[in-house]
Structure formats: structure tokens, C-alpha cells
Specification:
MetI-like fold; 268 residues; 13 helices; mainly alpha; 0% strand
Length: 268
């Protein structure tokens, strides 16, 4: 059969593509009707100008001071919250990830565990912070607890995907050898998952570092509360100092984490 004959016998799906395009277009139009743009307010323009001015004229005293309300200390606190929240979340996510894996515990247990993890993932981190701040009180500890809980949802899902992608032949061989569930996990599964687990944990740390600066707005520690106070009082030099410190920290962490994940993935 020639190429032209094959082309003539191709599936005719133009109507399907047209229907999908019409649906997406109508969805965009419908969404646009629910959004009303009233222009920029005078205060909004002032804030935008102030942010740009602050980034170009940061307060150097705040950048290099060692006091507890200066940039280095607050950045250190923000990073500490992200590190502890990620580590505790990753440790707690390990058992949940195995309980979600059908090839390890079976479908009924996996279904119940996935429903529980889905409940955790459904609630945004900002809402979790508002909940935990009533339990632990304001401060960095609330940020650590919030990030630990939020990390469980994402990390356990990624861990579960890696576990379920394993070769079932390994599990079957361990079954034939008479290994129980814990022995299968310790001997046959974990050694193959270390690189994936570490890479996922580092990726979550990137997210937690950015979230930690936002959670401070509700009193969960870190640089967020000080940044919001500086914006409200229109101290743009201090705002620029905080933002400059955050930008430098995020760039350094992003560069380091990318190199580590690449080394884990390729060995180079």
C-alpha cells in the first residue's frame, strides 16, 4: 500500500479537534466573564514602584547586621524551618508511601492510605498554618509543623510512584524466598529507591524554602512577617534588603539542588 493510500485512510478526527477547540474557547470566555479588571489603584502603583526602588536601593545595614531582626538571622531562621520541615516530612512520608503502594500492601490498604494522604494534600499550606498556629502558638515551631504535614502529602505521592515502578520480579522473588513485608522493603526495595527518595526530598526542600517565607505572614516564623511589616510601613529600603537576601538564597539553593539531583540521576 502506498503512502498516499495510507494517508487517505487516516482517521478522520477533525470534528473531534473542532469540538475540543470550541470547548476550550468557551471555557476561557466563560472564565473571563467572572473576572473584572478595575485598573491599578494609586496604592498599587506606589507599592510596585517601592518594590523596584527597594531592590535597587536596599538597606545595607539590614543586609549585613547580625541582629535578630536583620536579613541574615531571618534568612537563617527561614532556611532552618524549611530544612526541619522537609526532613520530618520525608521521614514520615516513607511509611505512608509503602502503605499506598498496591504492589506492597495490596489494594484495600493502599486505597485507605491514599484517601488519607489526599485529605492532607487538599488543604493548602496557608490553611494548615492557620490551624497549627492555634495549637502551637506563633513562632518557628508552627512553621516546622506546618511544612512537615504539607511535605507528607507530596513526598509520599512521589515515593509511591517510584515504588510502584519497581520491577515486580524482585518482589515475587522475595515472596518465593519466604520474606515478610518488612524484609521485602528493607532488602529488595529500599536499596533501589535511595536516589529517587533523596532527589524528591531535595525538590521538596526547594518548595518549602519559598513557602517558609510566605508562612511567616501568619506568624509561623521566618522572614515573611518582617517583610510584610516593612511593606505596610512603606520602608522600601528594608523591603529591598529582605527581597535581595531571599533572591540570593534561592539562587544558591536552586543551583546546589539542581547539581545534586543531576548527579543522583546520571551519576555525573
Amino acid at each position: 500500500m502506498s503512502v498516499f493510500e495510507m494517508f487517505d485512510k487516516r482517521p478522520r478526527r477533525g470534528w473531534l479537534y473542532l469540538l475540543i477547540t470550541a470547548f476550550i474557547t468557551s471555557l476561557v470566555v466563560w472564565s473571563a466573564t467572572g473576572i473584572e479588571f478595575k485598573g491599578l489603584t494609586n496604592k498599587g502603583v506606589e507599592v510596585a514602584y517601592g518594590m523596584v526602588y527597594g531592590l535597587t536601593h536596599p538597606d545595607t545595614n539590614m543586609l549585613f547586621s547580625l541582629s535578630t531582626d536583620a536579613v541574615p538571622y531571618l534568612l537563617f531562621q527561614t532556611m532552618a524551618i524549611a530544612i526541619l520541615g522537609t526532613v520530618f516530612g520525608a521521614i514520615l512520608a516513607v511509611p505512608f508511601s509503602f502503605l499506598q503502594s498496591e504492589n506492597i500492601v495490596g489494594r484495600p490498604v493502599a486505597f485507605v492510605t491514599r484517601a488519607f494522604i489526599l485529605l492532607i494534600r487538599t488543604i493548602p499550606s496557608f490553611v494548615w498554618a492557620l490551624v497549627w498556629i492555634r495549637v502551637t502558638g506563633p513562632g518557628p515551631f508552627c512553621g516546622v509543623v506546618t511544612q512537615s504535614v504539607c511535605s507528607i502529602g507530596m513526598i509520599s505521592k512521589m515515593f509511591t510512584t517510584a515504588i510502584e515502578d519497581l520491577d515486580n520480579g524482585i518482589i515475587e522473588s522475595l515472596d518465593a524466598a519466604g520474606c515478610n513485608t518488612f524484609e521485602k522493603i528493607r532488602v529488595g526495595v529500599l536499596p533501589q529507591l535511595y536516589a529517587s527518595f533523596i532527589s524528591t526530598t531535595i525538590y521538596r526542600f526547594d518548595i518549602n524554602l519559598k513557602d517558609a517565607s510566605v508562612l511567616g505572614i501568619v506568624g509561623a516564623g521566618g522572614i515573611g512577617a518582617a517583610l510584610q511589616q516593612a511593606i505596610n510601613s512603606r520602608r522600601w529600603g528594608i523591603v529591598g534588603a529582605f527581597l535581595s537576601g531571599l533572591i540570593v538564597l534561592v539562587i544558591i539553593i536552586e543551583f546546589a539542588s539542581t547539581r545534586i539531583r543531576k548527579k543522583l540521576a546520571t551519576g555525573e
